[in-house]
Design goal:
alpha+beta, Small Protein B, Chain: A, 7-stranded antiparallel β-sheet, two-stranded antiparallel ribbon, 9 strands, 34% helix, globular
Length: 153
């Protein structure tokens, strides 16, 4: 497996969505966007992907303008095309229409010098689902804390 340099992760994704299958895709970027990504200046919060005309586009992904750029810097929130195989796009179209799923980015990284994004098919969580997850997490922490304290005695 090639070495990955992770640029950013979408930490809220697992909190707000039930995550399913994951896919890796390339991103069409401009020169100043690549330089900005190498500085680690990106944010995936509130971003999502949509399929239009047989192509996949990424929305609300914020890539800050390059610090040493000129007036020709890119728009930070511009729509970016994602590079999927045709078979993957057809499979995604079927799943999104059939089951009411959305495409959510999980992480943005460099692999062999190329910017890649990991996407997941996701279904939104309800408020009670989020509460259940928080209860489960708190209970797990309490159990671990109890075991840790028991071992000290």
């Amino acid at each position: 497996m090639a070495a990955q340099k992770i640029i950013c992760k979408n930490k809220k994704a697992s909190h707000d969505y039930h995550l399913g299958e994951t896919y890796e895709a390339g991103i069409v970027l401009k020169g100043t966007e690549v330089k900005s990504l190498r500085e680690g200046r990106a944010n995936l919060k509130d971003s999502y992907a949509s399929i239009e005309g047989g192509e996949v586009y990424l929305y609300n992904c914020h890539i800050s303008p390059y610090s040493h750029g000129s007036d020709a810097n890119h728009d930070p929130l511009r729509t970016r095309k994602l590079l999927f195989h045709k078979k993957e796009i057809k499979r995604l179209i079927g799943k999104i229409k059939e089951k009411g799923l959305t495409l959510i980015p999980l992480k943005l990284y460099f692999s062999n010098g190329m910017a890649k994004i990991e996407m997941a098919l996701a279904k939104g969580k309800r408020l009670y689902d989020k509460r259940e997850d928080m209860k489960r997490r708190d209970a797990k922490k309490d159990i671990e804390r109890a075991f840790k304290n028991r071992q000290k005695i």
